[in-house]
Specification:
With 957 residues, the protein is of the alpha+beta class. It is 11% helix and 18% strand. It has eleven helices and 36 strands. Strands 27, 29, 30, 32, 33 and 35 form a six-stranded antiparallel beta sheet that branches. It has a five-stranded antiparallel beta sheet with strand order 16-17-18-19-20, covered by helices on one side.
Length: 957
C-alpha cells in the first residue's frame, strides 16, 4: 500500500527528474544548434589548419595566421615603431625607375623585369613583368597602387588648414545647381564682387571680400556685426535655438495678472509686462466704509478700552454685563415690563430641562407604562426590567424571534462581541443545549436556509450536510474512525492509526491505481511498483517507470515538443551511445564536438564575418584574405584618382571644422551678436544684454483695474508691489467713512464685529425709566420650573441653603499629555503628579511651576480628580508642601492591578484655608505601581489631548 507521504515523495522526485530532463533536452538542442549556427564556444576550441592561400568559409586557426607571416601571399606584422621587421622583408632586387612622356619612349627603354616606368603624358605607372620591354603586353599598369598626385592643386604633406584654404568653401542655403551647405568658390573676378544668395543667385556685397576668412562667422563663439537675423522659435520653445527679439516679445503673457491666490513661483514660461496691473484684492475690505461679509472677527479689546478699536460682541457683552448704573431695559422692552413667552430660554433657567432632547440630572421619575406599549411615553427602569432582557447575560423565555428586515448593506441580524482574557479557561462563544427526551433521528440542531431551501444543517447526531463545498481555512476533521466518501459507497479516503492517508475502492480494498480522467484503468494513471512509480498516459498499454534517481522509458527514447515516435526532436540510448534526433528523424551522436575546447577534424566551416568585424566571432580564411587585401595606400579621393581637384559636394558643413550652417546653426563656445535696441520686436538675434536690458525700471503698480499690459519690458522676479492702501490691513485696521458688517444673531459672544443694529436689537438702552427704579413681578411658588420670570425673592428662597458661592477668582490647572501618549510611571506609595497646564488663572499671586502650585493666603474651595491605572487601592489628596500637611483628602478608589485597562479615579472636593502663601501639590497614593501607564492609559479619540488630572480652585475669601 502506497501512503500519502510516499505519493508526495514520488511526485516530487518525478517533478525533479522531469525538470532535469527538460534542461538536458534544452541543452542538447541548444548545443546541437551551436554546432551549425553561430556557436559560442568556451575553453580552447581547435580546428584543422587550412593550407596557405585558402579562400573559403573554413575556420582560420592561429597556426594558419602564423604561417601567413612573412610568407609569399601572406602578411607582415609591424614592430613597436610601426615598421615591418627586416626579418620579414624578402630579398630586394635592384629596380630602375624611368620617366617618359610617350608610349614609344617606354617601349624603347632598356628595362629589365621589375623596372618601373612613369608616363607623364597619361599620369600612369607601369611595371615590366616579362621580356622584351619593346612589347607593350609585357608592361602592366599598377592600378591598385596609383597614388593621389595632388588634392585641390596641392601635393606633398597637405595640412587641414592648407586644404581648407585651397577649397575655400563657404556656407549657403542652396546653390544655383541645387547643392546644399557648402558650395564651391566663385570663379576668378567674382571673389571680391559677388556672393551666393540663398536662392542660388550671385549678388554683389556691400564691402565683403569673400576671399577674406574674417568675413565668415565661426562655429565657435561667432561675433556678428550689423543686424544678424535668425528664425523666430515658437512660443514657449525651451531649447538651444537662438532667441530673436520677436521671440522675446512673443513671450509676453496675455492673461490678466492674478490676485486672491496662494503665493506660488509659477510654472509659465511667459513673462509679465512692466506696466501690468494686478486687480484689486477683493479678499480684503476697502479702507473707507468697508462692507464685510460672512462672520468678520476682530480681537477682543481689554475691558475698559475706550479708543477707535473695533469692539467685538464679546467686548460689548462683557461691557454691558459690567454696568453698575442700573438696567435701562429688559428683553428689549422699557417701561412697565411684564413677563412674556420667550423672555428666557431653557438654558438660561437654572434647573430647567428643555422640551427637545432634555438632559436630566438627579433621579427623574415617570409613570411606568403597561405591557406591549409602543408610544412616545417615557419608559421607566421598572418597565424595561419587566419586559426587556439585560445586555449582559440575558435569560430569554418562550420563543425568541429576529426580524432583520430588508437591508441594502451588510447588517448582521446577530452581531456579538466578547473578549476572552484568561488562558486557564476554555470559553464557549455560543451555547445551545437541547434536552432530547423524544425526537426523530433527522432532528436538526442547526438549519441555515436561503429562500426556504436548506444550505447547511447539523443533525442531532452530529451529521453535517452541506448543499455545496465545505471550505476550511484550517483543518477539516473526519473523526477518529470515519472516512471521507464519495457518493456513499464509492471511493473513500481515511487515515488509519498510523496517520497515513489510505485510498480505498467501493470494496474497501486498497487502491492499486491513482487515475486522472477517463473511465477505465487504461487512462492516465499512477501506480506504485516497488520503490518506483509507474506512469501510464493516454491509451498506452505499458507503463513508463519513474524510479528514485532516474527515469526509464520502455521505448528507449524521449521525445520533445508534441511529435512522438521516429520524428520530432528527441534523445535515445543506442547501444550505450546518447544520440540526438532532429525534426527529420535523423539521429546524430552527441559528443562529436564538445562546447568547451572542441577539437575539429576534416574541414570545418563557419560563416564569413563582415569586413571590419572586431569581435570573438571565428574568422574564416576568406575573412583573413579580404582583410589583407584591404590594406594599402590611398587608392582614390572622393571616388576619383589622378590629379584630384575640388568639386562641389566634396564636403558638407558638418565635415568642416569650425563651420556653422546658415539654416538652424548650433553654435558652441560663446557666440556674440550686436545687441538690439530695447523693445525691438523682429527676427534679430537677441543677446543676453538685450534680455537683461528688457527689465522694467518702473515700480509695480497697485490700486488699478486689472489689465494684461502692453509693455515689452518684463518685471523682475523679486519685484514687490506696494501695499494696497485702499484696503484695510488684517491686524488693527483703522476704517474711515461708515464701515458696515453683517449683523450677528442673538446671544452671540464671539470675536464677531457687532453692528449698531445688533446692539439696539438685543440690548436695552441705559436711559430706561422702568429699570432705574425697582422693577417688580409676581414671585413664583418654590420649586416652580417654568418660563415664569424669577424675582429676587424666588432666587433668595432657592439659594437660601447655600452659605458660600464660587466667586470669579478661579485657578484651574491640569496634568495633560498629547493624544495617544501614556500618562507616566507610578510607584507603590505616594506619587506627586506633574501638573503642567494652566487653564484659568484669576487669582492674583497664584502660579504653577515644575508641577507645584503657589497659592496666596485665603479661603479656598477645590473640586478635582486624579486618574491612575492598575493601582489596587488608591487615594488622592491636596498637599501643603510648605508645612508638610494634607489640605483635602480625595475619595478612596480601587482598580484591579492585573487588568490592563482597569482605571481608578479619586475625586477631590472640599474647603481649606491658607494663612500665608504656600506651595501646594497633588499627591496620589497607590498600593501597586505601574510603568509607563500608571498615571493614565494612552488614548487617542478625535486627536484630543489626554487630561489625567484636574483641579478647579476658587478663592472665596
Amino acid at each position: 500500500m502506497t501512503t500519502s507521504n510516499e505519493i508526495e515523495l514520488i511526485l516530487g522526485q518525478m517533478q525533479t527528474l522531469l525538470a532535469q530532463t527538460q534542461v538536458l533536452a534544452a541543452d542538447v538542442a541548444k548545443n546541437y544548434q551551436n554546432f551549425t549556427v553561430s556557436p559560442h564556444f568556451t575553453g580552447i576550441p581547435t580546428a584543422p589548419t587550412a593550407p596557405i592561400g585558402t579562400n573559403s568559409d573554413q575556420i582560420a586557426t592561429t597556426k594558419y595566421l602564423d604561417r601567413l607571416l612573412a610568407q609569399p601571399n601572406g602578411i607582415a606584422t609591424l614592430d613597436s615603431n610601426g615598421l615591418i621587421p627586416s626579418s620579414q622583408l624578402p630579398p630586394l632586387a635592384l629596380t630602375t625607375i624611368y620617366t617618359v612622356n610617350s608610349q614609344a619612349a617606354m617601349l624603347a627603354l632598356p628595362a629589365d623585369p621589375g623596372d618601373i616606368c612613369i608616363r607623364t603624358d597619361t599620369n600612369q605607372t607601369f611595371v615590366l613583368t616579362a621580356e622584351p620591354p619593346s612589347v607593350l603586353g609585357n608592361w602592366t599598369e599598377l592600378l591598385f597602387a596609383a597614388p593621389v598626385t595632388s588634392v585641390a592643386g596641392l601635393i606633398g604633406a597637405i595640412s587641414a588648414s592648407a586644404l581648407t584654404a585651397a577649397l575655400n568653401p563657404f556656407v549657403g542655403a542652396s546653390g544655383s545647381n541645387g547643392l546644399q551647405g557648402l558650395v564651391p568658390m566663385p570663379t576668378a573676378g567674382q571673389q571680391t564682387n559677388y556672393f551666393l544668395k540663398a536662392s542660388g543667385a550671385w549678388a554683389q556685397p556691400a564691402s565683403t571680400n569673400l576671399s577674406d576668412s574674417a568675413a565668415l562667422a565661426r562655429l565657435a563663439s561667432p561675433a556678428f556685426t550689423g543686424t544678424p537675423t535668425a528664425p523666430t522659435a515658437a512660443q514657449n520653445d525651451n531649447s538651444t535655438q537662438i532667441a530673436t527679439t520677436a521671440f522675446y516679445a512673443g513671450q509676453a503673457g496675455a492673461a490678466n495678472p492674478l490676485m486672491n491666490g496662494t503665493v506660488a513661483v509659477g510654472s509659465s514660461l511667459l513673462f509679465s509686462r512692466q506696466d501690468h496691473v494686478h486687480p484689486s484684492d477683493t479678499s480684503r475690505a476697502p479702507l473707507t466704509s468697508p462692507g464685510l461679509l460672512g462672520t468678520p472677527t476682530t480681537p477682543t479689546a481689554a475691558p475698559g478700552t475706550n479708543t477707535t478699536q473695533i469692539a467685538s460682541t464679546a467686548f460689548v457683552t462683557s461691557a454691558i454685563g459690567a454696568l453698575t448704573t442700573g438696567v435701562s431695559s429688559i428683553f428689549g422692552r422699557s417701561g412697565a415690563v411684564t413677563a412674556q413667552s420667550g423672555d428666557y430660554s431653557v438654558a438660561q433657567i437654572t434647573g430647567a430641562a428643555p422640551s427637545l432632547s432634555p438632559t436630566f440630572t438627579g433621579t427623574p421619575a415617570a409613570p411606568t407604562p403597561g405591557s406591549n406599549i409602543s408610544t412616545t411615553q417615557i419608559p421607566t427602569t421598572a418597565w424595561v426590567n419587566t419586559y426587556f432582557a439585560t445586555l449582559a447575560s440575558p435569560t430569554f423565555s418562550g420563543q425568541v424571534g429576529f426580524n432583520g428586515g430588508t437591508v441594502t448593506a451588510s447588517t448582521p441580524v446577530i452581531n456579538g462581541n466578547q473578549t476572552w482574557n484568561n488562558a486557564a479557561v476554555a470559553f464557549t462563544g455560543l451555547l445551545f443545549n437541547v434536552t432530547d427526551t423524544a425526537s426523530a433521528a433527522a432532528s436538526l440542531l442547526l438549519d441555515l436556509q436561503v429562500g426556504g431551501v436548506t444550505k447547511f444543517n447539523v443533525r442531532k447526531d452530529g451529521t453535517i450536510t452541506a448543499a455545496a463545498s465545505i471550505i476550511s481555512a484550517a483543518h477539516l476533521w473526519a473523526g477518529t474512525s470515519s472516512a471521507i466518501r464519495w457518493n456513499g459507497t464509492k471511493s473513500a479516503m481515511f487515515s488509519p492509526a498510523d496517520g497515513n492517508i489510505l485510498l480505498q475502492n467501493n470494496a474497501a480494498t486498497d487502491f492499486g491505481l491513482l487515475q486522472f480522467g477517463g473511465t477505465s484503468s487504461s487512462f492516465p494513471a499512477l501506480k506504485r511498483s516497488g520503490s518506483g512509480l509507474l506512469l501510464r498516459v493516454a491509451d498506452d498499454t505499458s507503463y513508463g517507470s519513474f524510479t528514485a534517481g532516474y527515469i526509464l522509458s520502455a521505448a528507449g527514447y524521449f521525445n520533445f515538443n508534441t511529435t512522438g515516435g521516429p520524428t520530432g526532436y528527441g534523445l535515445r540510448d543506442n547501444a550505450g551511445a546518447v544520440e540526438f534526433k532532429n525534426s527529420g528523424g535523423s539521429w546524430t551522436a552527441i559528443g562529436d564536438a564538445t562546447l568547451a575546447s572542441p577539437a575539429f577534424t576534416g574541414t570545418p566551416t563557419a560563416p564569413t564575418a563582415a569586413p571590419g568585424t572586431n569581435t570573438t566571432q571565428i574568422a574564416t580564411t576568406a575573412y583573413v584574405i579580404a582583410a589583407i587585401s584591404g590594406a594599402g595606400a590611398v587608392a582614390s579621393v572622393f571616388g576619383r584618382t589622378g590629379a584630384v581637384v575640388a568639386t562641389s559636394g566634396d564636403y558638407t558643413v558638418g565635415q568642416v571644422t569650425g563651420a556653422a550652417p546658415l539654416a538652424s546653426p548650433t553654435f558652441t563656445g560663446t557666440p556674440a551678436a550686436p545687441t538690439a535696441a530695447v523693445n525691438t520686436n523682429t527676427t534679430q538675434i537677441a543677446t543676453t544684454a538685450f534680455v537683461v536690458g528688457q527689465a522694467g525700471s518702473a515700480n509695480p503698480l497697485m490700486n488699478g483695474s486689472v489689465a494684461v499690459g502692453t509693455s515689452l519690458l518684463y518685471a523682475r522676479q523679486d519685484h514687490v508691489h506696494p501695499v494696497d492702501t485702499s484696503r484695510a490691513p488684517l491686524a488693527s485696521p483703522t476704517f474711515t467713512g461708515t464701515p458696515a458688517a453683517p449683523t450677528p444673531g442673538s446671544n452671540i459672544n464671539t470675536t464677531q464685529i457687532p453692528t449698531t443694529a445688533w446692539v439696539n436689537t438685543y440690548y436695552a438702552a441705559k436711559a430706561s425709566p422702568t429699570f432705574t427704579g425697582t422693577p417688580a413681578a409676581p414671585t413664583a411658588a418654590p420649586g416652580t420650573n417654568t418660563t415664569q420670570l424669577a424675582t429676587t425673592a424666588f432666587v433668595a428662597a432657592a439659594v437660601s441653603g447655600i452659605t458660600d458661592t464660587f466667586g470669579s477668582a478661579l485657578f484651574q490647572v491640569s496634568d495633560e499629555v498629547a493624544a495617544g501618549a501614556a500618562g507616566g510611571t507610578t510607584s507603590a506609595g505616594a506619587n506627586t503628579r506633574t501638573l503642567n497646564t494652566v487653564i484659568v488663572n484669576q487669582i492674583a499671586g497664584a502660579s504653577l511651576s515644575a508641577g507645584a502650585m503657589t497659592l496666596p493666603a485665603g479661603e479656598y474651595i477645590v473640586i478635582g480628580f486624579s486618574v491612575v491605572q492598575r493601582s489596587g487601592g488608591s487615594i488622592a489628596y491636596l498637599y501643603n508642601t510648605t508645612d508638610s500637611a494634607i489640605l483635602v483628602f480625595g475619595s478612596n478608589e480601587y482598580s484591579i492591578n492585573t487588568a490592563y485597562s482597569a482605571a481608578g479615579t479619586s475625586y477631590i472636593y472640599g474647603r481649606f484655608t491658607l494663612a500665608a502663601t504656600k506651595n501646594v501639590t497633588l499627591v496620589h497614593n497607590v498600593t501597586a505601581g505601574l510603568a509607563t501607564y500608571g498615571f493614565g492609559n494612552s488614548t487617542s479619540v478625535g486627536g484630543i489631548s489626554n487630561r489625567n488630572a484636574e483641579l478647579m480652585i476658587w478663592k472665596v475669601a
